[in-house]
Amino acid sequence: QVQLVESGGGLVQFGGSLRLSCAASEKINSYNMGWFRQGPGEARELVARITVFGVTNYGDSVRGCVIISRDNAKKTVYLQMNSLKPEDTAVYYCNAQHWQQLSNDYWGQGTQVTVSA
Predict the structure, then answer these.
(1) How many of the other CB atoms lie within 10 Å of CB of 113?
(2) How buried is residue 72: exposed, middle or buried, by Cβ count under 10 Å (0-12/13-18/19+)?
(3) CA–CA separation, 61 and 88 (whole Å)
(4) What are phi and psi of 29, to 5 degrees?
(5) Mean pLDDT by groups of 10 residues along the chain of 117 residues
(6) CA–CA separation, 8 vs 87, rounded Å?
(7) Are 95 and 107 in contact (CB under 8 A)?
(8) Cα 33 from Cα 21, distance rounded (Å)
(9) Rounded to 10 degrees, what is the CA torsion of 58, 60, 65, 68?
(10) β 10-13/31-38 pair status
């Protein structure tokens, strides 16, 4: 069981930046890591994902404004978000999925990001 703890959320003004962190309780070397978000009344959507090989992919709505990275030694994944807009307001969740055993799929509790106009 991998426990994930997100941090770094908060209130930011339009055009501002935030860096989210996701700290894992165990080594993440074998896990594809991702960030998802869920806005009020909306479905959860992919923000960014980074595989065990370091390959990244981004959601269409955020591409060009976010960068995902991982530090396996620190058991941490980061999400750098720039040029934030009010529509980026959401709870951001960290996800870890074992790259071979897909049923080993874990979520954090989420961190709130609020962007003011």
Answers:
(1) 22
(2) middle
(3) 9
(4) -55, -30
(5) 96 97 97 97 96 96 92 98 96 97 95 96
(6) 18
(7) yes
(8) 12
(9) -10
(10) unpaired
SS3 109: coil
Strand order in the sheet with 76-81: 4-7, 18-24, 76-81, 66-71
Q: Is residue 41 a contact partner of residue 94, using CB atoms and an 8 Å limit?
A: no
Q: Are 67 and 49 within 8 A, CB to CB?
A: no
- Identify any residues that bridge with 4 across adjacent strands, giving them in sequence order: 24
Helix (H, G, I), strand (E, B) or coil at 86: helix
CB 15 within 8 A of CB 34: no
Residue 92: the pLDDT is 98
Is residue 35 within 8 A of residue 19, CB to CB? The reply is no
For tokens 């309780």, name the residue.
25
Measured CA to CA, the distance from residue 93 to residue 59 in angstroms comes to 14
